[in-house]
Structures are given as C-alpha cells and as structure tokens.
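Milestone 3.1: sequence recovery, worked example.
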C-alpha cells in the first residue's frame, strides 16, 4: 500500500529509570508523564489524550488525534476522545487496522497513523494520530501509549458494564413489579413506555396500540409536550404503512442514531414526536404484534451501543410477557364482571334484579339512617300485560317488558335504581333524600309514560301501571317493612278501578 510504513511496537522498551533520567526528550517526557499519571485514580480517555498531545506535538508535529472505542457487541468504532480537528478519513484509517494481523505494527498512511489498542489479547479500540512527522515516534513510546489507552478503555468498559448490569436489573425489576399488576394491554403499554424511557435515558417515549384490523386505536406519550393531542392524528391510521413499523414487525427492535438517515412515514410517530434519534420496540403478544413503543431525544443524534441493543431486546421479550399477563387478567376480570352482571341483572331487560335491589336498598337505608336522610321505594305492576301475552304471544310480551324498562330508566335520575323483580313487576329505588313530593312526582311521571301506546311488531299496544310508594323512615323502620308498605300500596292502587290506565298510592294512606 503506498505511503505506508510498518512500525514495530514489540521492541525498544526502556526501563523506567532511564525514562525519568532523560526527561528533556519529548517522547521520554511523555513516557514519564504517563507513568506518573496512571498511578493515580483511573483517568478518562480524554485525560490521557490531553496529557499526551503536547508531548506528541513537540516530538512529531501532532495536529490532531482521535481515540475510537470498539463496541464488542456490534463491531463498530465510536469516537470517545479527540484533540484537534477530526478529519473525514480518520474512521477509514482506523478501519484499515482490522485488515491487518492483530500483532501487526502501527499503520502509517500519509500524515496519519493508526495504532491498534489491545490488552489481554483483545482489541478495545484504535488510536488515530495526524501530524507532520509521525515516523519519528519510537516503538517504545507507541507501545506504552497504546497500552495506557487500552488499559483506560478496559477499566472504563468494566465500570460501564457494571453500571449497565445494575441499571438493566433495576429497570427490569421495576418493570415486572409494576407490569404484573397491569389489568389491560393499555396499562401494560404505558408501563413499558415509561420503563423504556427510563432504561434508555431518553427525554421522550410514546406508545401506540393497534386493533384487529391493524389500525392504530390508542396512543400514549411520556415527556412529549401535549403528547396525546400531538399524537392524536395517528388514530385510525394503518400501522403497516409506516416504514418504522415494518422494520420491527418481525419482533426485533430498531435503533436509529440519526432519523435523517432512514425513511419514516410523513406525519408518523417519529415526526410527531420530533425526535432526532430513536429506538423502536415492537409490543408483542402470543398472537403477534399489538403495538409499538418509540423512545428518543429531540435535541441531537445519538450513537446507540451494543448495550442499548441488548436492553431493547430484553425489554421486547419481557414486554411480551407483561402484555400477555395483562391480557389474561383483563379477560379474567371481564369474565368475573360478566358473571357478576348475570347474577345481579335480569337477562331480558338488562335491569338489576331482585338480589341487586335487596342489597342496594339495604345499603341505602343504612346510609340514610346514619345521615338522617330519606329513601323512597316504589313497586310497579303493569295493567293489561296478561292480555298482551294472551293475544299477541309471549315474544310480544318480552318486547313490551324491554320497552317498559327503557321508559322507566328515562323517568328517574342516573343514581336511582330501576329493577325488574319478575314477570311484569318492577321496583324503583329513589336515593339522595327524596321527600313525598319528589316520590309522588316520579310516580306520576312513570304512570304518564306507561299510558302512551307501545309499538310492538307493527301493532300499537296500550297498558298502564299501578305504583305503590313507601318512604323511609316515615312509613317504615327498615328495608323489609319498606318493601311490605310499597307492596300493599301497589295493590291498593291496582284495586282502585277509578284510575284510567293505573295510578299510584302512598303506603301511609293505604
């Protein structure tokens, strides 16, 4: 290769005493400075380079120097320290070293020199020097310089690995502690997004979930200003139309150091977040991808490391477990809620049943007793329901009961209870301290609504209602007595044949 000279670093080493005795020579001064400097606390790579640069300028006309750290996971070189102005060819020169044997001498290429940094049989980086007279550097100086840089890189790498393991362990532990309590995929996704932002130490994180058609149905953000509003335009979009989504659809995270180097969807997650670099994680379940998490920084590009990739892969795996667990808990809760609803609700009308009424009324009486308030219970029996069943059939009777239920719900407040006790008998529980005037007004409203014709299977049907009212504590001292009073008043109203289409009676006047 033209303009290259091979230089050996395996010979010519001088004893320390000799080095200290000839400190007037810049190269000897460098050796002495390195020995003195490295006996202190472990320095940074920049410290070692700053110490070496003045001596290298005096000895070999150094104009710039860059130390590249080798990422053992990815095999990529990353600049970790430099002096002077870096050149575009520095990375190319550093890469040429790896085409040479591990024990080969430094590579001289014009005004640049690349020195492999090895320790314990492993390459940990490359030192690239730029200067006017690098060939004068002695082999013992280059060997010592390489050893000191390699030692520093190894010590820093060991500390970074220790911190990384501790950070990952604490991140995953907190993720499981919180994630295993998630009761929905949305909750699990929010926890994963927050954990990812913390794990990668990014300013922003965002999440979206897809529906069975692959459209985005849910968005959430961490740290993004006005996040939900900013990400709102994503709702309804097809996830597969995003290049980022396609890049992770196979289950592997995507790490992008500069968003300008990759294709993203216009108006997609990366653009809406405003990130310059990102990590995209697939949110998986046993059925396949259910969403995506993106973490990134808005201010600058970023060199993601092999450790970042390891953490991303681990979060993807652990995240799938948390999502599946959340789905199972969500399904279990939905099943329990369904069973509970069936146990306390009428299957025909959807109204609460007698069991629910007994529990809710007993609780209301207890609260009213403690607060000195009132409770009203009304029992309703339809007039003419048997005739509908006999003439139009039981199916028409069922439809009538469903329509009656809707009219009753429209006649009371949201906090009141409308219950079907069985057959054509209903109950209405009024809470929040109703007096006699309120109860009678509700009863009158119910009777008026029931008098209006019902349309069933194209036919108009007319029925009425008889309502009995009982108030606590005026008419009863407990729930059982309240129910008996309302029941007696209802039958009194039903016997009153003077009322057209039904009416209401109060227990105290029965």
């Amino acid at each position: 290769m033209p303009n290259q000279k091979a230089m050996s670093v395996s010979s010519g080493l001088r004893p320390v005493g000799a080095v200290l005795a000839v400190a007037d020579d810049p190269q000897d001064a460098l050796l002495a400075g390195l020995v003195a400097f490295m006996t202190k606390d472990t320095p940074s790579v920049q410290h070692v380079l700053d110490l070496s640069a003045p001596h290298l300028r005096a000895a070999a006309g150094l104009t710039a120097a860059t130390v590249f750290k080798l990422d053992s996971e990815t095999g990529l070189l990353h600049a970790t320290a430099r002096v002077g102005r870096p050149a575009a060819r520095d990375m190319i020169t550093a890469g040429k070293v790896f085409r040479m044997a591990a024990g080969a001498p430094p590579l001289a290429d014009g005004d640049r020199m690349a020195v492999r940094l090895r320790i314990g049989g492993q390459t940990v980086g490359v030192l690239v020097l730029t200067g006017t007279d690098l060939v004068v550097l002695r082999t013992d100086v280059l060997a010592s310089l390489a050893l000191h840089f390699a030692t520093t890189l190894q010590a820093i790498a060991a500390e970074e690995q220790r911190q990384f393991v501790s950070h990952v362990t604490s991140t995953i532990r907190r993720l499981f502690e919180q994630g295993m309590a998630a009761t929905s995929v949305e909750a699990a996704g929010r926890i994963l997004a927050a954990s990812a932002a913390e794990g990668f130490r990014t300013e922003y994180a965002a999440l979206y979930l897809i529906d069975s058609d692959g459209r985005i149905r849910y968005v959430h953000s961490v740290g993004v200003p006005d996040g939900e509003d900013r990400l709102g335009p994503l709702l309804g979009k097809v996830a597969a139309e995003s290049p980022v989504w396609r890049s992770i659809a196979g289950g592997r995270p995507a790490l992008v150091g500069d968003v300008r180097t990759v294709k993203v969807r216009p108006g997609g997650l990366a653009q809406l977040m405003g990130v310059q670099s990102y990590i995209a994680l697939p949110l998986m379940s046993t059925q396949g991808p259910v969403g995506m998490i993106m973490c990134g920084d808005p201010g600058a590009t970023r060199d993601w490391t092999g450790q970042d990739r390891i953490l991303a892969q681990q979060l993807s795996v652990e995240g799938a477990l948390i999502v599946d667990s959340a789905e199972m808990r969500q399904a279990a809760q939905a099943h329990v809620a369904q069973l509970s609803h069936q146990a306390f609700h009428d299957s025909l009308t959807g109204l609460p049943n007698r069991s629910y009424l007994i529990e809710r009324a007993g609780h209301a009486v207890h609260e009213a007793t403690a607060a000195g308030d009132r409770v009203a219970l009304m029992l309703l029996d339809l007039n003419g329901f048997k005739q509908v069943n006999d003439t139009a059939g039981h199916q028409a009777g069922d439809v009538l009961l469903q329509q009656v239920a809707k009219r009753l719900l429209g006649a009371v407040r949201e906090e009141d209870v409308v219950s079907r006790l069985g057959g054509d008998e209903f109950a209405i529980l009024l809470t929040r301290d109703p007096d006699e005037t309120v109860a009678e007004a509700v009863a009158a409203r119910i009777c008026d609504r029931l008098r209006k014709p019902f349309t069933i299977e194209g036919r108009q049907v007319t029925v009425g209602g008889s309502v009995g009212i009982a108030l606590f504590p005026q008419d009863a001292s407990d729930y059982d007595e309240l129910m008996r009073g309302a029941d007696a008043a209802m039958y009194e109203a039903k016997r009153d044949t003077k009322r057209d289409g039904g009416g209401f009676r109060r227990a105290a006047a029965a």
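The first helix runs from residue 16 to 21. The CA atoms of residues 362 and 480 lie 9 Å apart.
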